[in-house]
Amino acid sequence: MTYRSLHPSDPSFVGGHRLLARLGEGGMGVVYLGRTESGALAAVKVIQAGYAHDEAFRARFRREANAARRVDSPWVVKVTGADPAAEQPWLATAFEPGPSLADAVGRHGPLPVRTVRLLGKMLARALAAVHDAGLVHRDVKPGNILLAADGPRLIDFGIARSLDDTAITSADLVVGTPGFLSPEQATAHGGRLGPASDVFSLGCVLAYAATGRPPFGGGAVDALLYRTVHDSPDLDGVDEEVEAVLLRCLAKDPADRPTAAELDAALVEDGSPGTAEWLPADVVRMVAERSAAMLALPDIEATLAEAPPRPAPSRRRFLAVASGGAAVLAAGGGAAAWAALRHSGGTGKKQATAPGWALGVQADLSGAGRAAGQAQEQGARLAVDEFNARRDKPFTLELKTSDDAGLADRAAAAAQRLVDDPDVLAVLGSSTDETTQAALPVYDTALLPLISMSAGQNLYQNIRSFVRGRPLHGTVAMKLAFHLEATSAASPVGVLLDRTAGDVSWQTVQMVNFIVRQYRDATHPRVVPAGTADFGPVLEDMRDAGIKAFVYAGPLEGAIRAAKGLAGFDGPKYAAEPALDPRFAAEESAAGWTVVAGAIGPGAAQVRSFAQAFRKRYGRPPGFWAAEGYDAANLLIRQLTATKGRRPARKALVAPLKKATYQGITRNFTFDPKLLQLSTPASFVHQVRDGAFHYLGPAPDKAPQPKGK
């Protein structure tokens, strides 16, 4: 078993479980290895806060957690606890150290016929128990099946769905793992999913176990989905009797498939599980190896001074190092402790000069996104220059920069450079989601206040020193949908999710799909795999479906391809925030496209004075995100001046920053201390005209009135 170390931002305790390591991470949250006070091990899934603050999600999570507890089968990993009402909902299951079916087949090849039959019987009984509890698993795949000496275990209810759920947030979106999902999943008919869908997926799993390959092949996701819906499965090499059973499971029509109980009866095999004899010898050795790894579980630090708080779970680990009656608090190891001693003069060496006052900017200053990063830095520098020009200034302020080139693997080092500079008291940055996420643990360990104006992904949890000065991507997408509904009656709306942009695209499409359907309008959602260079087939499909409007969620390069591919389409066309770039506006085919983003337009009336000062300082008009950089720097400057000339410790600025209220030129800054984000988010509408973006104004804050449909 491979364990990954906890991040500095990870909690120490969740629901009475002492967290030992990370087991995995996905779109819904993080799975930890935990230990209860009694010593029992558990896999603890902690849900992302983006879902936690959705009451509809909480209600569904509560129903599913309750249903999952009722699943009674030795072949389903047991749910041992859950708290849907926690600040971040969590679900704990018994921990099984065995390898996954995917690992076993990938390492040792196809399984013997007898093993496949026994595997099918046990998993059929597992699904029968799941279905009897009122659930549909929806992601039965080799990676979600663990092998133990006494039989398999079906795991991961991460995307399970109650049979009576309305599925409003996932209707018409592909949910599951391509290659192991049913035709009704492949065609995104989420509302039609029932137990028969799981049986189809189990048929795919057993075909994989018997042959070492998925029955509908591999390759691009679109091709996989097409073959799942239209082609016959590849069962070459499967035992004749097993093949006949699998063909029934893999029927395109759900009504033609056996139930889980019927599948159990159809897979005839002498003997029963209960000993390792059900597995071939090489896989038994693999199970033994993984079980032996249990002896090397990560230890709980002997110097840990923290006890699990009651009733609320701990959010951080602290190491108290006592020396001469004083204590140095370090939350990240020797380097952080050394830096804290050095900054405080605790090494006993006299510093050559008194520390100065400085703000830091971490941004992409030289990479592909340097236009936005440089704009933020220039906006912040203008704010610092204006402050230093004041006659009544209580101190002189510097601006120090650290370039991460927009690369996540350089972000932590860029953050450390600012952390190691004793002059830097607070930081603006970084300019992308990926670099901000990578840098956050460094800033949090040092308790160096950080405000981000352009990173809007909801991945920053249990971070004490961070606030987000812009709306989440999901909030921006909601306002995009509000604007679409307020200005157009076009339906259906084509919605294209480009997986190249990861969770940002998914969040955008989910929100647009949900909002549009609330107005009884139809959507026609489609997905393209990451790295897709030719949008032609999927755009042609959308046009053939009669779409009247279009929304693209993906990176800048994909937005340009979508604009070219939809040349001549005269319906409303929207792109998500990454398209807010002069390179998109410069494309002739982008004319008329609308982009809703967290950045205000440089031509907005409320930033006119700033734009004039910027032009005077730099000899050109400001770009997108410059005004946001100016606002962030002024907010931090105000926090520094509130100390009345007494140089504050970094950590002393954290709490006041989270409580700050500040009227900037781009927005009103009031932060929710629990969510680490704006209480008063604002998004802005931009449209491409004559090769440039024209600012249309703020996006609607509220849903428009129904259109009388």
TrEMBL record:
* SMART domains noted in UniProt: S_TKc
> Which domain of life does the protein's organism represent?
Bacteria
Keywords per UniProt = ATP-binding, Kinase, Nucleotide-binding, Signal, Transferase
Residue ranges occupied by any Protein kinase domain in the UniProt entry:
17-279
- State if ATP-binding is listed as a keyword: yes
**InterPro entries noted in UniProt:** Kinase-like_dom_sf, Leu-bd, Peripla_BP_I, Prot_kinase_dom, Protein_kinase_ATP_BS, Ser/Thr_kinase_AS
Binding of ATP occurs at 45
Name the record gives this protein: Protein kinase domain-containing protein
